Amino acid sequence: xxxxxxxxxxxxxxxxxxxxKYIRKAISIIRGEMVFEDEPIYAEExxxxxxxxxxxxxELEPLFxxxxxxxxxPFYTDTLNLFILTEKNFRALGIPEDSLRLYIRWWQKxxxxxxxxxxxxxxxxxxxxxxxxxxxxxxxxxxxxIEKKYYERGLFYLALYxxxxxxxxxxxxxxxxxxxxxxxxxxxxxxxxxxxxxxHYTEIEDFSKAKQVFExxxxxxxxxxxxxxxxxxxxLIPMFNFTGLNALGMGDIELxxxxxxxxxxxxxxxxxxxxxxxxxxxxxLACRVQGDFDRAITLLREGLKFTEEIAPNDxxxxxxxxxxxAWTYFNMQILDSAEVYFRRAKAPLESLWQNEQRIQLHGQxxxxxxxxxxxxxxxxxxxxxxxxxxxxxxxxxxxxxxNTFNRSAFGLVYELIGEVYLELNEYDSALIYLTQxxxxxxxxxxxxxxxxQVFFPSVTMWVMSTRGRIFELKGxxxxxxxxxxxxxxxxxxxxxTVKGEEKRINFLMDKMxxxxxxxTLLLKMGKYARAFHYVERAKARVLxxxxxxxxxxxPAPEDKNILFERKKxxxxxxxxxxxxxxxxxxxxxxxxxxxxxxxxxxxxxxSLLSRVEREKPELASLIxxxxxxxxxxxxxxNKDLTVLEYYFTDTSLFCFVITKNAxxxxxxxxxxxxxxxxxxxxxxxxxxxDEDIYAEPSxxxxxxxxxxxxxxxxxxxLIIIPHGLLHxxxxxxxxxxxxxxxxxxxxxGYLPSASILRYCLEKKDKPKKSIVAFxxxxxxxxxxxxxxxxxxxxxxxxxxxxxxxxxxKEATEDKCHVFAPGYTIIHFACHGEFNxxxxxxxxxxLSRGMDIVDDGRLxxxxxxxxxxxxxxxxxxxxxxxxxxxxTKGDEITGLIRxxxxxxxxxxxxxxxxxxxVSTGKLMSSFYNKLNNGLYPAKALxxxxxxxxxxxxxxxxFFWAPFGxxxxxx
Length: 969
What we know:
Layout: H1 2-13, H2 20-30, E1 34-36, E2 39-40, H3 46-53, H4 57-66, H5 73-93, H6 97-109, H7 114-127, H8 130-146, H9 150-164, H10 167-179, H11 183-195, H12 207-223, H13 230-249, H14 253-270, H15 273-290, H16 293-310, H17 315-331, H18 335-356, H19 363-380, H20 384-395, H21 404-423, H22 427-440, H23 457-473, H24 477-495, H25 501-508, H26 513-524, H27 528-539, H28 541-544, H29 546-549, H30 557-583, H31 588-615, H32 617-623, H33 630-636, E3 641-648, E4 652-658, E5 663-669, H34 672-687, H35 695-705, E6 717-721, E7 747-750, H36 757-762, E8 771-775, H37 787-797, E9 804-807, H38 813-819, E10 825-829, E11 831-833, E12 843-845, E13 857-859, H39 860-863, E14 873-876, E15 885-887, E16 891-893, H40 895-902, E17 906-910, H41 916-931, H42 936-949, H43 956-959, E18 962-966
Helix pairs in contact: 1-2, 1-5, 2-5, 3-5, 4-5, 4-7, 7-8, 7-9, 9-10, 10-11, 12-13, 13-14, 13-15, 13-21, 14-15, 15-16, 15-17, 16-17, 17-18, 17-19, 18-19, 19-20, 19-21, 20-21, 21-22, 21-23, 22-23, 23-24, 24-26, 26-27, 30-31, 31-32, 34-35, 37-41, 41-42
């Protein structure tokens, strides 16, 4: 009947220019056809949708007549006839474009236009006309939301999902149903979504889809732990495992851990014993790669115990677990235990082959695993021939790699063979295996890559670095620098996927060699300024990214917005790069669009960081690793100031001596264990107040750290930028061969890195106001009382007009948050607590307040949230307030960094537990001199020299612990 009416209409239209009324009549015949259950089609407005779709009408025809059967196929057939007919009629009627646009705007507001948009969108999606489909999807979506038709919106996206199987459409359907508390619909959607999952994932190309599904389900299940049936669970767990393995291989460690955690939970719930042991193994593996060794060992041993109980003859399952335990011990530098477990991992399978000439499924991978591990152990012991034999045994099984992570592991073994040949000075052989490493991983381009071409970062960064080393040994230093630089770029991108300060620090522990190679070569070439840049780059990692990876309170809402915006752009860049990798070579037009969008996102990112650098330099130093240049440092220095920046490798200690107009560098050959022992010796000697046994280690450290540059120290004021363990050195207590201490000649300040000097200097001219001081907080234990601290605060208050002083129970954390932002100087005379495992939990201990939130612990993480823009100086007259956790790659995190970020350019703090009596005298002298016009570094230096000359407190224990951090001039 419909086709008959349309045919009559077509005959009339050719003779009747007023035929639009007949078109309306014909459309009304279609009214009532069904697309969704209980959802009528209001097709009257299709005439304008047709007009919008005119350029694509001919493309729609094959879809309607030849597409797969569906419940809406009859409607599509009639709609196509209507499209074709009305296209001709609109052309015949010559409707003006202006009138048409006005009509479209009215039509978009019409409540009954949704079905038109929805069905056209679905039609274009089925045809594969993505741009046209997106246009109508967006139109429909905006109207659904405006009209709050969430149920209908859910049905629409459900139909889209059934058409294109895109997880994003199911996400929108679920979110729509959740808006109306449609629990049954949500449950149905999720279970059908799971039912559509493949039973097995075998192709690496499936990773993108698996990742989408996982992220959707993972985020949904976290909020809505619905009950799932056996069949649902059976389909989920392979997806979790597949996602985790491939994410790990591609360097997305955080995603892999999330996937393996769900794999472990659901396999246990399913009662899938084999999957549970695999989950323990893989989650332990991911934790090991992340640097969480304790958790890795716990998980792996749990899996091993379970495997040996339920399947004592499963040599593959137990082999993987033993192998990963071995790798964890290797990462912890416990080589003997690592070797034992590597041998245990492969021994049962070797015995099975020797005795029965058979091997269990995936046994080849376990054997490869064991041989690779033994190769690593022998490399660490510098037994090169044994390492080569182990690695060659390993790569016999390279064809058995079943997933992205295993491929990356075999790729790394090829790279390691190259490294061994490099150690044996066989450069050509080394290059052959480095090339094979890349070829095995599917990297077709030889030589230097662009960052966008890197697919396996965990392997490629080492390949590029080793290639650089070969060029360096051949005397081609310029080429070597290119490869070293790329290896560092890859490392920094790879590292950005690791979340959490502790995890990022551990991640870097075995990778600082990449920086060391570059720095050492640049110094050898005399490129001192560029070497200085990489020293700053190596030091600044976790320190400058602290905000992103911790729950830190920010002083201003706009700072939070900046971080959210940054994360959003970074995620977009990451997704676009992944899409580009997947589609490379498949669709030239699509690639052009992806590249265009990627450039746009990168430009947005650069614009954001530029804006932050201009408007919020402290935040910029934390979110954008943009190390200062040598010229940038020199520009900020005055002629009366010298900077000493240290950097050490396993065998050498470098010192950069920087003045306003000059740079000099020195290299001292030193074993790091010797240096560490000397530092510990000095600190323990200073702690022994009853004996003067500090002279020997003090003089030895002076010879190493100061003597090589002493002739270049021509200013009274020094800023020392330590590295690693040197942060624990009280430089003022170092003694030259004549028995003179450093404090006798110099006013010493410290900085965690040169990169923060600039914004410390920007605050140096803050107008002098007054002081707020907190002294002798009240505790339940009377033994914690500090009466001398109370006297110290009262004495200090005498030097200022209108000081604000809080003593005993009034010295609360809450008052610090309220009053500290308004004062130029903030003084704490209290106990301090340094947390070595979690430096951001280090705290100043104040009195408890009335509020339950005011627990009296002013932690480092909370200090980031105090606005100290008006503050010039913070004095922490507290035990160990200057201590920070130091690592090889990340320097200093603790109370000091918190105060610098909060806005204080100068902080005075202590390196060890101090005497409150001597501290009171030191502080009184310091404030007296400060009030008489001396700058902080000079005032502190004079106060320490004065205390040193007094009979009772001449020992370094009393005057050496306090250091000035930031800018003291």
